[in-house]
Design brief:
7 helices, globular, Aminopeptidase, 6-stranded mixed sheet, alpha/beta
């Protein structure tokens, strides 16, 4: 399926590039091995919570793409020797409550890595189906690298032609701040939530499935 292939390339390229920029922010001569890095990926929704959708194709739901892309990202980072954990690896639902964040903390605690990254992986949708583009969120009261991570993701998405989000009808709301400190206050991780695109918007869906866009990504 051409659309699935395009989403795979999109998710891996922009997140892989951004992850490595955050891991080695300014020091190109860093000799720290990749095994000093731990990444926890949280595929949004799952189980009885399908997330956004259906997509403009009338069949694809967010929860499925979130898990597929998260698995592929885990595999690609793992090849580099990076420790990667998923909060879910099946079509199951984890409620957004203390139990979920306890699991995330437990995943991070299994690693003694100095650098820790948290990626909440999502795709977007709107009631009107008119909103489009990408959005990236970072933690409000944390160190600067979470914000830098989000900015790098946004920059790379724009660089390959993905527009900033129209933010449910409000122009230019491409970068927003998310306060996760209530849940992740004890985890020293650079954290972002990414909304790759609006699946239910025909323009977004057509763009990501177009041959020309595939060439830009490659």
């Amino acid at each position: 399926m051409k659309g699935t292939k395009v989403f795979r390339i999109l998710g891996l390229i922009y997140l892989l590039c951004s992850v490595f920029i955050v891991i080695f922010p300014m020091d190109c001569h860093s000799k720290k091995p990749a095994r000093d890095v731990c990444v926890v990926i949280d595929p949004g929704h799952g189980g009885g919570d399908p997330g956004g959708g259906p997509a403009a194709d009338g069949a694809t739901w967010e929860k499925t793409l979130n898990l597929q892309r998260a698995r592929e990202l885990k595999s690609s980072l793992g090849i580099q020797g990076i420790k990667v954990y998923l909060t879910r690896d099946t079509d199951t639902y984890m409620p957004i409550d203390p139990k979920r964040w306890k699991k995330i903390k437990e995943l991070f605690s299994t690693s003694n890595s100095e650098k820790k990254l948290f990626i909440s992986y999502h795709h977007n949708a709107s009631v009107t189906h008119k909103a489009k583009g990408t959005e990236t969120f970072w933690r409000l009261n944390h160190d600067k690298y979470g914000k830098e991570f989000a900015l790098n993701v946004d920059k790379r998405l724009r660089g390959i032609g993905i527009p900033p989000s129209t933010g449910m009808g409000t122009q230019g709301r491409n970068l927003m701040i998310l306060s996760w400190d209530v849940w992740l206050k004890d985890v020293r991780a650079k954290a972002i939530l990414t909304e790759i695109c609006f699946l239910d918007n025909q323009d977004d869906w057509s763009l990501y499935n177009s041959p020309s866009f595939t060439e830009k990504i490659a």
